[in-house]
Amino acid sequence: MDHPTTALDMAKVEAFAMRSIGDVTAGYTGVMVSLGHKLGLYKALAAVGPLSAKELARRAGCAERYVREWLNAQAAGGYLGFHAVSDTYELSPEHALVLADEDSPVFIPHAWNVPAAMWFDEPKALEAFRTGRGVAWGEHDERMACGVAAFYRNGYRASLVPQWLPALDGVVAQLESGICVADIGCGHGHATLLMAEAFPNSRFHGFDTHAASVEEARRHAAAAGLAERASFATARATDYPDQRYGLICFFDTLHDLGDPVAAAEHAAATLAPGGTVLLVEPFAHDRVEDNHSAVGQLYYSGSSLICCAHAIAEGGKLVLGAQAGPKRLADVFRKAGFAHFRRAAETPFNLIFEIRR
């Protein structure tokens, strides 16, 4: 569409164009972050302090000319510090938590697998937008499942056992005494295993429709020595076996389901008397305009290609999306017969709810 230049605020055009360039730059930077992680460049910098390009290349086993260009890209973006006099580059301790410490709750490199998979799957997204068909979780490039699982693992490690479970009335005491727990949409099993490690008297059962993720979860359980009290099986959110669960968990998964009300009804049918549903969902306000933020932009974008697409692939009776908000979530469980729905905790990225019949 043509616009007369006299009607345009060219300062606004330039400002938005530069912001768009910034977004493109972020995409380039993501590739650099992934390379820095996989090549061990960040870890080498974190281990010894300021290094020249030559020394970093030697320590990481890489070619110096490539490493120097990578270093300059990182320094230009403020990821690394540059010391002109000594011609060395430095990773600060604060940035190392984000880029080099794989156990840090703010470790970010794995997250870049998700947009990589989204780009790879663009032809499927184009078809889905044009036809309205769904794209199931298992139809995505394998980097999607790996990236999501690895990214969420550290955040859950920092919050699930020390903060979220204690925010639920009486649940920690039940876990310590021994109950059956179901993790619906368990993915690679990281959250399931965090609980299994913390509460040896309870038994944990992870369920997911994605067979490859279930197999990965079993491998993680075996490697952690937790296979005796943490099992994983392929099942839908509406047909996993009834074991009178004292706790049923939906970790960032309810909004992905094609029929969340049916999933809530199945939870009600399989919950033990006095049992609790733990619902963890992406942070969102109820009004669309209140979600116009960086977090909202992230979640709406992911929801377009991942969450809504999978829900539609499952039949799409109620496609919540990743920004459902507390009122819509509460309505799902009210329709399923639950009377108690309480916000127990929150973070900038998640809402945590305690739900009982």
TrEMBL record:
Keywords: Methyltransferase, Transferase. InterPro entries: Methyltranfer_dom, SAM-binding_MTase, SAM-dependent_MTases_sf, WH-like_DNA-bd_sf, WH_DNA-bd_sf, WHD_Rv2258c. This is Methyltransferase family protein. Signal peptide: none annotated. Residues 176-312 form the Methyltransferase domain. GO terms for molecular function: methyltransferase activity. It comes from Rivibacter subsaxonicus. One of its GO terms (biological process) is methylation. The keyword Transferase applies. Residues 29-99 form the S-adenosylmethionine-dependent methyltransferase Rv2258c-like winged HTH domain.
